[in-house]
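Because discrete structure vocabularies remain unfamiliar, we turn briefly to a single example record, giving the amino acid sequence and backbone structure tokens:
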Amino acid sequence: MRLRVFEAPTSQQALARMREELGPDAVVVATRDTADGVRVTAAVETHDPDLRGMLETPGHSAVTTRIEEVLDGHAVPRPLIERLLLRVRETGLDDPQLALADALGGLAAGVAEGLPERLVLIGPCGGGKTAAAAKLAAEARLAGRRPRVASLDTRRAGGVARLQSLLEPLGLTVRRCDDPRSLAPEPEEAGPELVDTGGINPFSGRDLAALAELLSHLRQEPVLVLPAGLDAVDSGEIAANFVALGVRRMIVGKLDMARRLGGLLAAMDAGLRPCRVSIGPAVGSRLLPLSPASLARLLLGGTGTVAENPQ
């Protein structure tokens, strides 16, 4: 209830002011004569906000139920599901795609804005690093540039040769490097823009230590290439190991071969920001950008019908 006092020479004037300011639903609570006229105390009912309802966490709705079912179907770890659902309930959005996109934007501070100009691709064996390197080189050629490409994948039989075979149609040559220190040019020199590396066992302390030593000699930013269809727990642990080495961005590989994306969300939750997505092995199939909105569409609609551009 809202109370107001109106003073006027006559009661009619006081009542007129009351209705003008408080509306037709206002009622007179009290009147009193004054030396200058009359004093009217009036009141009008107000609708107080539901403070308890605003502060309490909303319960399950059709939106949260739908999102919970989807995340569970993608084998997302239960603690992560609960945190995402908490955000969904807090926002109260009534569209599943918008609500899920908003919640996903909070993982690893969302998605990266893009790739660095100079990068080194790292990751587990068979993760798709060489294919990603070829796609990035092809993208640069289509943009009218001739990227400098090097490979440290010299211990695996045919590692450098495979990348060279993919880049030959583009008119590019791969620089073979056995020593990463040779890729650290003087400040005034231009080093390789794109470096491919051999795969490692992401659970091996020896492999991780060797990778840390390799990265210490390079000026290129490390970008992890991680397959989309890994087990969520494994993916989260792998991501955490690379984050400990200073890695912050990742390329999601082999999206077309994944049907459950819990591993991708677990990697994001560990601190990696996805910046591109690889669909198919063909060099002409470019790496696609990824956003919280497009990731929400993939999760809600399944990955079986991934379009050429998921944005």
